[in-house]
Design brief:
By secondary structure, this protein is an alpha+beta fold. Helices cover about 35% and strands about 20% of the residues. A seven-stranded antiparallel beta sheet has the order 17-16-13-14-15-12-18. It contains 16 helices and 20 strands. Strand 1, helix 1 and strand 2 form a beta-alpha-beta unit. Bound molecules: flavin-adenine dinucleotide (FAD). Flavin-adenine dinucleotide binds next to helix 1, helix 2 and helix 16.
Length: about 400
């Protein structure tokens, strides 16, 4: 007789778990509290829909924190495996110039979601909407869904992080898990805007302007990309990728220092050479002509460097390669692309099983790991789903 697996939460982690579970062995049901599944998945699709990143697997693995936690999981179902799987269900992908992976042009996020749901239906996976988990039955530890204990052989939670509450992933489960004695950590915003106390005249002129082709550093971690100047501070992929390092500094000193490299493709020597070789006496013209810095980049240097430093070619070159900026806070959790916190990693086994609730598992963003945007988040979520499916398929039931 088939055993029952109840998956709570209908997002990408659940989809891939349900896609890889052996349906000859298990009857699989997904319980989703919304009237539809995958709402955050669709939100993710609204901007650039990065389903994964095409980096070589060793490099990709290196983007995740804490180090080591997802290594086996990501190698077990890699970015290439995810692309192949999408192709198999009728969603071809392509690699963009940023090396991020997108569904082939013309394929809308809703079509990707529909292809996945159709695939699940074909496999006999049952999706029950308007079904909300609220706790456990005291005697049996069966999950309570819509106020009724659901008798099941295995329970998998894939109920997401705590940002973008409107999508259903509101993190309200955290207190329920804590009360059950499962160790959780407070949610914190990740991949979010960071607050900077901009000089008023600078921000008036440059609000909304992107700083393109830069690199940012924090605690020796480098992230290339772009960042947009906002009244709040800075947002964009160059800064999102430094979230763990910024959070660490903010936590210990209430501020964080990051550095911008305005010319990541040039060494310091090359920047100095370019500045010194120019015939012009006008520093702004030199930066524009020789180094092709944008008006915002030049104004940033002018506003924040003293006149003496700006006019000193050696010190100016050093600041072009390592310009310090002070971060004084983060955007709210709800505005963040993802959250860290949730289930403490010490509360689960290497197979994502809750230590004090055997046969119950947690996967996806609800676990306390972090990665930059650009496809790494979805890849992390789907890889945890597949890893658990492979484990459950082999479990002796
Ligand atoms: C604006 C934005 C853009 C993004 N862009 C990208 C991107 O381009 N690339 C990328 O890799 N990632 C991106 N992400 C992140 C990515 O979407 C998430 O990391 C991913 O969806 C998390 O998957 P999950 O399955 O763990 O949880 P979710 O997708 O959050 O799914 C959890 C599900 O559980 C349901 N649920 C919650 N509580 C209960 C309950 N008590 N009972 C029943 N059901 C419940 C929720 O309604 C939800 O449907 C983006 C996120 C946002 C917000």
């Amino acid at each position: 007789m088939k055993k029952n697996i109840s998956i709570i939460g209908g997002g990408p982690s659940a989809f891939l778990l349900a896609s890889f579970l052996d349906v000859e062995k298990y009857r699989v049901t997904i319980y989703e509290k919304n009237k539809t599944a995958g709402r955050k998945f669709l939100v993710a699709g609204k901007g650039g829909f990065n389903v994964t990143h095409s980096e070589p697997i060793e490099k990709l693995i290196d983007r995740y924190t804490p180090k080591g936690f997802l290594d086996k999981t990501l190698s077990g179902f890699s970015n290439t495996d995810f692309r192949n799987w999408l192709e198999q269900i009728g969603i071809p992908t392509y690699i963009g110039s940023s090396k991020r992976v997108y569904p082939k042009e013309g394929i809308k996020p809703i079509e990707v979601l529909n292809a996945i749901l159709k695939h699940l239906k074909r496999r006999g996976v049952l999706l029950k909407y308007d079904h909300t988990f609220s706790g456990w039955e005291t005697e049996t530890n069966d999950p309570i869904i819509n106020n009724e204990a659901v008798a099941t052989d295995y329970t998998v939670f894939s109920i997401g992080g705590a940002s973008w509450k409107v999508t259903g992933s509101d993190g309200s489960w955290s207190s329920v898990f804590s009360e059950k004695g499962i160790k959780t950590k407070p949610f914190q915003a990740s991949n979010c805007g960071y607050q900077i106390n901009w000089d008023p005249s600078f921000i008036k002129k440059h609000e909304g302007t992107p700083l393109k082709n830069i690199a940012m550093y924090c605690n020796d971690v480098i992230q290339k990309g772009e960042a947009v100047i906002t009244t709040f501070g800075l947002e964009g992929n160059a800064i999102y990728g430094l979230s763990p390092q910024i959070r660490e500094q903010l936590l210990s000193t209430s501020k964080a220092t990051l550095f911008i490299d305005f010319k990541p493709s040039f060494s310091l020597e090359k920047v100095s050479e370019k500045i010194n070789a120019s015939n012009s006496k006008n520093t702004t013209q030199i930066l524009k002509r020789e180094l092709k810095l944008s008006v915002s980049q030049i104004d940033l240097l002018k506003t924040y460097l003293s006149k003496e430093v700006y006019l000193n070619k050696t010190l100016l070159a050093e600041n072009i390669k390592k310009f310090p900026l002070e971060i004084i806070g983060t955007a709210t959790i709800d505005e963040a692309i993802s959250t860290v916190g949730g289930i403490d990693l010490h509360a689960i086994s290497e197979n994502f099983e809750l230590n004090n609730l055997p046969t119950q598992f947690c996967i996806g963003e609800m676990l306390d790991w972090d990665a930059p945007t650009g496809g790494y988040l979805l890849q992390g979520c789907v890889s945890t789903g597949v890893a658990l499916a492979k484990y459950l398929n082999e479990v002796d039931v």
